[in-house]
Design goal:
With 118 residues, the protein is an all-alpha fold. The chain has a single domain (14-117), classed as Tetratricopeptide repeat domain (Serine Threonine Protein Phosphatase 5, Tetratricopeptide repeat), CATH 1.25.40. The protein is built from six helices and no strands. The protein has helices spanning 14-28, 32-45, 50-62, 66-79, 84-96, 100-113. The chain is globular and about 40 Å long.
Length: 118
Amino acid sequence: MIAGTVSISKACSNQAQQYFDEAYKYSIEGEYQKAIANYDEVIRLDFQLPKAYRNRGLAYFYLDQHDRAINDFDEAIRLDPQYALAYANRGRAYEKLDQKDKRDADKKRACELDSKYC
């Protein structure tokens, strides 16, 4: 997917969308610190966007900052309890921390919400 084609919210400001697009582009390029900085701005402008927390969590995950990733996945799930991908990603972070029970619970919940995570 090309940067700029990911819509985060109809109600989201143009400025937040611009930061999101930049963060997404940096993530694709593997520039996770830059992605995080841009997701920080998205969240500052609109802290109710689960996709911003999930994507920032994924950037932390790729930087091996699994506790920080889990915190962001937790927030994404708090904002959208039906967000299967956030559960799947949090399960991967728990796996890296060797927390198998939590990993299994998240994998199960992701599967319940969306069969593609089974």
